[in-house]
Amino acid sequence: MDRLKWVAMVTGELKRQIDAVWNDFWSGGMANPLAVIEQLTYLLFIKALDEQQTLAENKANRTGEPIEDDIFPEGEEFRPEGRAEGRAYRDLRWSRFKNLPPAEMFDVVENYVFPLLQVRAGQSTHAKHMRDARLAIPTARLLQKAVDGLDAVPMADRDTKGDVYEYMLSKIASAGQNGQFRTPRHILQLMVEMMAPQPDDVICDPASGTCGFLIGAGEHIRREHPSALNRSSMSRHFHNGMFSGYDSDPTMLRIGSMNMQLHGVQNPDISHRDSLSDPSLTGVLRFGRSVGARGLVFPLHRFWGGGTR
Q1: pTM listed for this prediction
Q2: Which among 106, 108, 117 is positioned nearest to 83, based on CA atoms?
Q3: Measuring CA to CA, which of 38, 88, 94, 297 is 20 to 30 A from 211?
């Protein structure tokens, strides 16, 4: 496969479906691309929770063991703090509320699903970035269009999920707010090829943004070392210890974490950190590689593009 074709093109009907979702946000009064992608990130995370629950239920049915992480306990209610009435957990699942009338769906998502995200914020690397999640979609009709649109987009496998989200991210302007820039894909690919990450590396992007470089490194390893992740030790390292990304913008942390999740990295360290003022990172940023165990860094001083997005 041509290495320059690292991210598959989203074309045809799939592209039309994603563009339709994006256009619904614009016509519904949300014109800030970062605000749109943040809301889409929340909805994709909510959808992923339902898919995770379904997988856990299927496993429990096969093994006869109880569900390990029961996100939506059957027969129980979720009552957010400060609310007099609860709602059955099953109603908070994507597969359930997507069929509700728009006004009821809006109430469920705003007053129950989003508070559930905040409650679960400490339970996983990806969930922690949902701690301050808020529904900013202004109307029930727009929420219904967004849910229907995302539900129609086929995202059954890791490659398609990643490609769809990358295409959504491409709609963020190249020069964003507060100096945020998104590194062009061909530059990102060149940098990854030059660094040539290995399966036992520890990789850090000190200004990670959408986590494009970390994803590029992960895809490089999957492509160039396809058998490495078949070993349990390497798989644990890949999903739990290989990738670190730092950013000072909570919105970008949420977007970057979702990008990693959709590309199949289970537990990366995507954290709030000001790399330019953190004295513990001074040497890393200066030299680009850690001392001792082989570690790779995408340093700002060598490949500056307004921030390694």
Answers
A1: 0.76
A2: 108
A3: 94
